[in-house]
């Protein structure tokens, strides 16, 4: 198990654009993170994927330490922070599918 490479409070790690995106529309930002993570449909993720659910998918996919209770609390209590963290994590680690194909 690994840990998050982008901290929950590293809000401006990728510049002001990602930070503003996460704060102004966390559901859209989280949908973008998941779409980049696994190629799933952005519109579906935005309409049906909660920040807690998408955070859980990304965390488990990368083998990051944690549990669903933590994902629920972070997604519920601070969606903007969770979405900014998820976007950064996916940018840094890339898609698990592309890593599998390269091996």
Tell me what the structure shows:
With 103 residues, this protein is an all-alpha fold. The protein is 71% helix and 0% strand. It has 7 helices and no strands. The chain has helices at residues 16-24, 26-38, 42-48, 51-62, 68-77, 79-93, 96-102. It is globular and about 30 Å long. The relative contact order is 0.23.
Please summarize what this structure is.
The chain is mainly α and 103 residues long. The chain contains seven helices and no strands.
Rg from C-alpha positions? 12 Å
Instruction: Name the helicity range.
Output: over 70%
Percent strand: under 5%
Q: What is the structural class?
A: mainly alpha
Overall 3D shape: globular
Give the helices and strands as they follow along the chain. Answer: HHHHHHH
Number of helices: 7
- Unreliable stretches (pLDDT < 50, length at least 5) are none
Mean pLDDT: 91
- What is the terminal-to-terminal distance? 20 Å
Biggest sheet statistics: none
Please count the beta strands (DSSP E, at least 2 residues each).
0
SSE arrangement:
Elements: H1 16-24, H2 26-38, H3 42-48, H4 51-62, H5 68-77, H6 79-93, H7 96-102
